[in-house]
Every structure is written in C-alpha cells, then in structure tokens.
Amino acid sequence: MWFVLRPFSRLTSFAPVGCWAQFRKMEMKMKFSVPKMSCGHCTSAIEKSIAAADPAAGVTCDLQSRNVTVTTGKSAADIAAAIKKAGYESELLAG
Q1: Which helix (H) or strand (E) covers residue 14, if one does?
Q2: Is this prediction's pTM over 0.90?
Q3: Could you report the per-residue pLDDT of 32-86, keeping only the tens digit for each?
C-alpha cells in the first residue's frame, strides 16, 4: 500500500493521502433492530457473521435496546444478509 504525504500546515506534521484515507470516507454507520437478540451468544453469532462478511466492520451490539450498530463499507442489504445468516431477522433503523 502506498501513501503520499502532503503537508497540511507548514509548521505541523503531514496528513496521509492514499488508499486508506479514501476507504475511510466510504464507510457508513448503520443501525439495525434485532428483536430476538437476547443474550451473549446471540451477539457473538451476529458479530462473527458480520465479521465474515466484512472483516473491517465495526460492530456494537446493545442487548437492552436489541440494536446492532455497524460501521462498514458494505451495503445495508449485505449486513442484513449477514445478520440473517446468523439466524436473526433484522430491520434497518438508520443508515
């Protein structure tokens, strides 16, 4: 992977420009309702399934609200399919 460093200020350090900087801009934060998610096993299965679909995804499961928040470059349909593959129905709340 190549990075080009360009100064963003004459007196401070350099800002990276390259593949990684462009990739981070394409990520989206999505929130799904997963009504039947009720325990640690459920959250683990969902996290593993999403990680299999997108290893770079950030996943946060909230058991109290039964919501899953995902930061990913994949589409909402891809993430919903991963949750379904784990055995759970989901609904996109925000994305």
Answers
A1: strand 14-18
A2: no
A3: 999 999 999 999 999 999 999 999 999 999 999 999 999 999 999 999 999 999 9
State both tokens at 43: 């959250």
Nearest Cα residue to 87 out of 24, 39, 51, 34: 34
Within a 13 Å sphere around the CA of 57, how many CA atoms are in the beta-carbon half?
Answer: 29
CB 58 within 8 A of CB 72: yes
| Alpha-carbon separation of residue 66 from 5, 18, 71 (angstroms) | 43, 37, 17
Amino acid (one-letter) located at 93: L
For the chain, domains (ranges, CATH) are 27-94 (3.30.70.100)
- Helices 76-85 and 40-53 pack at an angle, to 10 degrees, of 130
- Judge contact between 30 and 95, C-beta under 8 A: yes
